[in-house]
Write the structure tokens for this entry.
Amino acid sequence: MRSPIRTRAARVLVALGLVLTAVLPVARLATASNHLILKTGTDQDLQVLNPFSSILVVDFEIFTLNYDLLLNFGQDLEPAPGFADSWSASDDGLTWTFHIRDGMKWSDGTPATSADALYTYQLVIDATAKSDASEDGYYLGAGYLEGYLTNAGIKSVSAPDASTLVVETEFANTLLLNAYVPILPRHIWESHTLDEIGSAEGSTPFLNEPPVVGTGPYQATEWQPGDHITFTRNPNYWGKQGAADQVVVQTFQAMDTAVQALKSGEIDYVRGIQPDQFTALQGDPNIQVVEGISNGFSEIAFNTYNRGPIEGGGASTTALQDPKFRDALAWAIDQQKLVDVTLGGFGEPGTTIVPPFHTRWHSPPDNPRSFDIAEANRRLDAAGYPRDASGNRLDKEGKVITLRVTWPDSEAEHATDAQFIKEWWSELGVGVDAFVTEEGKLLDDLLPPEGGGLANFDIELWGWVGDPDPTSLLNVLRGEEIGSFSDSFYDNPRYDELFLLQRAESDEATRFAQIKEMQNLTYDEAPYIILYYDAELHAYRTDRFGGWTNQPSDGGTPLFGYGSIGYTHLTDLSAVPAPTQEPGATAGPSAAPGGPDGGSTGSDSTPLILGIAALVVVIAGGLLVMRRRSATAASEEE
Amino acid sequence: MGGSFVARRLGQAAITIVAIILINFVLFRLMPGSPERVILRGTPNVTPERIEALRERWGLNDPVFPDQLVAYITSTLTGDLGYSFIARGQTVVDVLAQRIWPTILLFGLGEMVAIALGLALGAYSGWRRGGPIDYLGNSVSLILYSTPYFLLGMGFLLVFASSIKWLPTFGMLTAGRVYGSPFEFLADLGAHLVLPLATVSLGLVGQYAIVMRSSIIETLSEDYVNTARAMGLSEGRILRHHALPNALLPTVTLIAINLGYVIAGAITVEVVFNWPGLGTLTVQALTARDYPVLQGVFLLLSVAVVLANLVADLVYGVLDPRVRT
């Protein structure tokens, strides 16, 4: 009986060894060095390295680390030097001339010239042309990036010499200066067809796997999908270098773990924490929390579809088409209460579709509403929505109004909003049937006949996130977007006219007046009730890196904003002797003389030794049990 | 006789797997929302033409039966599980392959530790029933058995990683770290492994100990044990040579079934420690509605359970010839 036990133990060890060798190839064996690594944690899971397939905030963050835009976003989101270092418009505003930085190189050493910018812009123009001509619809990747050039009315690009890029537009505008399109290395990308670049579902998709070649400050060098991605400093970067030699972007499934990792110093920055975690981190002397304003909003969207009844779908009452009805309902929403309860106080009540994040474009409404149930009732009476004998409001067809209120399951917090809204509107005699809908199904339900659907909903709660320019947020209420972007089917010719005017307006004061009118118009007519502008909750450690700078300075966050500028400001605090060693700050035994822990390889030794020890104990423990058993058995047999 | 027993068990397992494949097919066609919308999730400006093109391309316009079913079974049997929606451009097989090793490492080791500790504890406390080790071991086992993984894991994390900072908080390796030698790599892996491994093995040890204890007690009252005592054999020899082999039978079943559920149990432990295995993958795929990956995970999980049961049956057959009929 004994020898089988021994062989079993041996087999176990062999199996263990096999498993370890299976994992070993992951290790990159190289000479150890004192790398300064910036580690950031996020709740989002990086999904792509091909910029055209980018959807999530983290996708955009990562491609702007790899690449420069033609013009980057500055500290306050103003156009700043990027792939081009200077730019000018012709007198009629139709021709833009960009000067490409002299002597710039890609991270692999190849010269970076106007030919690369020309290649990238032409790729987008070709994709747009293909999309226009195509019967079955064609999009470049996720279809997000083309809009930055088409909204700017781009007509043609040319590169008269290696340092000049000339762009012709159909109408004068400044949107080109905000184009979120990364300039790609032609010598890498041109061997791939438009289909390989634009379609991730094709047979040979171009995934742009590491090592990535770009002109940005850091280049992706290693990627473990679903876990983390590692960036290494670009030796040929043209601008000011940040202190970090490497940047790691780590995905966390549980933000509690991310917060613990921040507290233990294993990561330096975390994005997407919860209000209670935010409050808990506030007391930590080495951690700074940031409450940024998000560039977006959560809204109540009404189904205002008024192009005739929809067979088998559509809204349950025509009242939703009436701006007076929607306005009255908006009076019966206590937005501050929703901010306090749903957002835990982190955010602010919403007003117009251009959030205060856009300091240059946000305009508070001229006729603001407040929370006033009596006023809401008065307005419903005045607008011709009487109550029946049991107190229910009737629409103009004499039908009792019961509104279906739904939200996607991916945005669970809207369940709280819906409960409050149901309560408040019941005091108006307006019934609410609140329920959650699976996101994929809701996307289906939101499609009007123009998009091949039935617009089978009354009210949905969801949100939008914007760009540095407000155009994309203004776009969602355009009549032309019914069938694609629009989920309220708002159709107002004046609004559409203003949209085109502001898009083609170069004078900031005039453009502001136009955008202000658009905000007032949609606030008063309320196709959307903007519930709140939620806060962006971030936190970072202040003991390893310095130079954290919010972007924008007013209400922004240091990282996960727009572009790579935040990374280039960072300084190395471990290089300078720690200025203050507060005695009571950390009572831990690891009061090492040489500054913060986790920085160099040397201070890592404690967990390592413990780890080895634990492994050894585990294995040895198992063996010991078996040996002792066989030893006693042997002695008994004697 | 033995051959037909093995053949019958293999046949049953094969039938179960076919049934699983069928259920997997039906289940994901009952999901709300149309698949083409899921593929296009987050994509603006979706025209009906594009949706139609996608439906055509993914074969969604073909009749569900038999065309889609036949296509599904053929590709599944040839190891083609399709493309992941979220990891754009990667096949499901690739995605699963990246994530299966960390899970096997964590739960394979966890099972071994739990088996060694649990069976030893159970056997000892059953043998010395009523003794101090029995009282202590039994109550500790019950507490561990009833503690959810995530609670145990979060507790470890708060104490050992976040407060006294002995061990890393998350992951399998220190991201971005460059290793000077394979030894350093193993040390880093080991350090990251301690807390999740402790969670997994402590979570399992309780039930193994409880089952082993009651099994030993039952066996010790059998006639053949009394006979052995009457023959004057030492207590230790009776335990090891007569009671233990028979008492192991029920635990073999338990362990084998647990092996199959290893991946399912992985979810909470892996999420707490951000361990890059199949558990975190399942959560990622669920939140992102990556149906092809979910389908792959389900298939893998159910096949694992079936195979584990098959192994249990076969091992049982070896241990106890009576079942081979």
